[in-house]
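Thread amino acids onto this structure.
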């Protein structure tokens, strides 16, 4: 028994509803739930015998209305801020050079918040022990730094 056009449209709206709901279940980020609501409204209109233009209008209107009404509330309650990892938190931090930094010989160390890191100079120049530096980036287990102050005695307690 072949399907008529009305049945095909109803099945299409049902398939779209399931597809949008499944996509939302997979992403859990309120990305397609609006379209699932729109497809549900269009399916209801199709089941009640509404013409295709009414179904499409309902789909678009309900989807946009849900998007406009719910998205701002959802964004307020969903945390999409990126939290830096422990390593990323040292970027921008000040540190004291504890071992002369020499990129050519591949040596150098700094202390950042009580932890010793292998260090390299950002511009490739040497930095003497005791110099205060700022961490610019991390590559692997090495921090790349630039001087920000004159050297101080390495043994001096600076309350870091």
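Threaded sequence (160 positions):
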């Amino acid at each position: 028994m072949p399907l008529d056009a009305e049945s095909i449209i109803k099945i299409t709206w049902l398939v779209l509803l399931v597809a949008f709901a499944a996509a939302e279940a997979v992403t859990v980020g309120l990305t397609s739930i609006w379209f699932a609501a729109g497809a549900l409204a269009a399916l209801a209109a199709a089941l009640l015998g509404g013409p295709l233009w009414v179904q499409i209008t309902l789909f678009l209107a309900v989807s946009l209305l849900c998007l406009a009404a719910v998205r701002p509330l959802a964004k307020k309650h969903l945390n999409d801020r990126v939290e830096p990892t422990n390593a990323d938190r040292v970027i921008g931090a000040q540190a004291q050079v504890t071992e002369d930094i020499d990129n050519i010989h591949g040596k150098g160390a700094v202390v950042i918040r009580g932890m010793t890191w292998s260090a390299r100079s950002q511009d490739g120049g040497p930095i003497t022990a005791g110099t205060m530096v700022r961490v610019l980036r991390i590559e692997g287990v090495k921090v790349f730094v630039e001087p920000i102050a004159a050297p101080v005695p390495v043994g001096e307690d600076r309350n870091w």
